[in-house]
Design goal:
eight-stranded parallel barrel; 18% strand; two-stranded antiparallel ribbon
Length: 345
Amino acid sequence: MKLSLFLHMERISAEDDQQRLYEEMMQLCEIADQGGLHAIWTGEHHGMNFTIAPNPFINLVDIAHRTRNVRLGTGTIIAPFTHPIRLAGEAAMTDLITGGRLDLGIARGAYAYEYERLMPGMDAWQAGQRMRELVPAIKALWEGDYTHQGEYWNFPATTSSPKPVQTPHPPIWVAARDPNSHDFAVKNGCNVQCTPLHQGDEEIERLIGCFHGACREYLPEKPLKIMLLQHGYVAGDEEDAWQAATEIHRFYNYFGAWFKNQRPVRQGLIQALSEEEIAASNYYSVDAMRKNLAIGCADEVIARLKKYEALGYDEYALWLDNGMTFERKKACLERFIRHVAPEFR
């Protein structure tokens, strides 16, 4: 199982300097590359200072110039927010600039907050239908001279400009949770990205069960891969592990508040949660974080990841957006590289 890093430029407070946060993000990417991790993934979000990521291609090109070997992935492009011709060309240009290191992850999106602003009136089902139309269109545009007559887009014969470096094209990953999404990915020859969020082993087993079921049903022409994206923290000791669980518990309370889309937002920041609101959260409890996520000293994290590997996951991406200070993120990543990664080489 390959080990990777997933992160955005994370901003919780108006006092956080954006330039400093960006440079800290780049430092973590450089550490991941120097430490031999397989890939760096970063996503797309709009108008949310919780995860600043308006165009992952820009970040990946910068990361490419600061690194040597690491793969560079979009985790993920939000399908309904872009035209197939534009995405095919931008992805191909990124593949060209990065020397063929691009992995293209695509999703329907999740935040109603973003839907309201970029595609008013669209719901999650419609976003999923747009993704299902977009993916085969991109592949056809890379082949060239493709005419599209669809429900959401129509255009005459077009060829992606430029074409990607990788042959036949960069690996495509589809974010999937329900069985239908796994079926779509496998039928279209795409790898699968999945995240159980804060949920535990039962959800992790269900997700890979959906993937294996789809592979048995549709018999892809070439082997496909499945990646698990999950928060984790390699701790120095048990006290450190519980501190991490508490910090990630706070992060998930903010994540849930953004997802519900009910709190006021000012200058891109959600109205602060009170300590009482956070403490009262049973759904995102500290105990659940400690139990369900890859949090613990190195031996505990290794044992958990070995279980994921035995289930059949091909890649594990350590999700390092977690509300912690840069120093704690850096220490976690260095321990992950030094103590955990050697067990998977």
